[in-house]
């Protein structure tokens, strides 16, 4: 009898252990399936979200393409920049009496501050490059002062325009091509800038900060109480007074900028002129360049057709090509017409470069450029930086 009871107890224990581990395994299986279902649901949710984002992007792209088809290609805001002493690295030229870089007035206005005054010039340019910089600056100054431009180095009296100083700068990276343009920016600022403009700009920034603080105080008081208090009225009068002061200063600055403007240098990255042509329904590089220049002029002069002088600097210009049709030895071929002053059958000027502008391009691949583009009358000045 005792043996039978022991056997029964043993069977019950074994059964309990089997049931326990069975239930434990079943519970693990259920948790696994539950987790798997959750993961699958999360994965499907993420995929649905991603698909929705892709669909939204596709809709936006289609809308943008439709807009471009209706309105034409529009230069993006990152396709150009307007160079100034605040956003260039001015190194200064060594041993050039005509253009003194040490302790010039614009050094007092650049970001380096007092350190700039003690800075020694670092650039060593060839005589030809120095003469080019001097000729460009001298001609722009004469043009702004309505003086007649004399003959150029070739005694060319036929084209007394700034465009005769169009140039191609070629050489390996880091040889000073961009620094030449920075020198032009620096000395144009030195010659034409008015210190009052910077002073007024700082005053306007201070007034704007003061106005913002007053409005924040006004908003904080309004949150505390809906009723108009004496403090509310005082702040309202203060805001009105600061606003009138700001408007007057902005008007004064606008008038000053109109009478004292610096001939600008527009910098364009050659990659922004690249196109796939008709295949991608984009304009050719020449038309892109023309439209970007018009946008620059509109922003700077408030007039896309202003006849005031300016310089265009195209960095890595050899990238401005039609990738579908470009050939070696024919780079920049599309720019031939833009760099000419050709006339159509009616005797009207084609959409070409402004005669009182200067186009300067930089390239590492001079030997790949179409020879017709770098001849005299288009990019006549060829400056080797190697």
Q: Any overview of this molecule?
A:
There is one protein chain. With 386 residues, the protein is of the alpha/beta class. The protein folds into 3 domains: 1-72; 77-191 and 262-384, Rossmann fold, CATH 3.40.50; 196-259. Helix content is 48%, strand content 8%. It contains 7 helices and 6 strands, in the order H-E-H-H-E-H-H-H-E-H-E-E-E. It has helices at residues 2-71, 114-117, 127-144, 177-192, 195-224, 230-259, 285-301, and strands spanning 80-83, 167-170, 265-269, 310-315, 357-363, 381-384. Strands 1-3-4-5-2-6 form a 6-stranded mixed sheet, with helices on both faces. Strand 3 (265-269), helix 7 and strand 4 (310-315) form a beta-alpha-beta unit. The radius of gyration is 34 Å and the shape is extended. The relative contact order is 0.12. It holds the Pfam family AAA. Residues 34-68, 197-259 form a coiled coil. InterPro entries: AAA+_ATPase, ATPase_AAA_core, P-loop_NTPase. Keywords: Coiled coil, Membrane, Transmembrane, Transmembrane helix.
Blueprint of the fold:
Elements (H helix, E strand, L loop, with lengths): L1 H70 L8 E4 L30 H4 L9 H18 L22 E4 L6 H16 L2 H30 L5 H30 L5 E5 L15 H17 L8 E6 L41 E7 L17 E4 L2
Q: How would you summarize what this structure contains?
A:
This is 11240_t:CDS:1. This protein has helices spanning 2-71, 114-117, 127-144, 177-192, 195-224, 230-259, 285-301; strands at residues 80-83, 167-170, 265-269, 310-315, 357-363, 381-384.
Strand content: 5-15%
Large-scale geometry: extended
In CATH terms, the superfamily of the largest domain is P-loop containing nucleotide triphosphate hydrolases
Secondary structure: number of strands: 6
CATH topology descriptor of the largest domain: Rossmann fold
- Element-by-element helix/strand order: HEHHEHHHEHEEE
Structural class by secondary-structure content = alpha/beta
Report mean pLDDT, rounded to a whole number: 77
For the record, the count of structural domains works out to 3
Largest sheet: 6 strands, mixed
**Stretches where pLDDT falls below 50 for ≥5 residues?**
97-103, 105-118, 344-348
Radius of gyration: 34 Å
Q: Name the CATH class of the largest domain.
A: Alpha Beta
State the separation between the terminal residues, measured CA to CA.
112 Å
Strand order of the largest sheet: 1-3-4-5-2-6
CATH architecture of the largest domain: 3-Layer(aba) Sandwich
* Helicity level: 40-55%
- Helix tally equals 7
GO molecular function, one term: ATP hydrolysis activity
Transmembrane segments: 9-30
Coiled coil: 34-68, 197-259
Pfam family, one: AAA
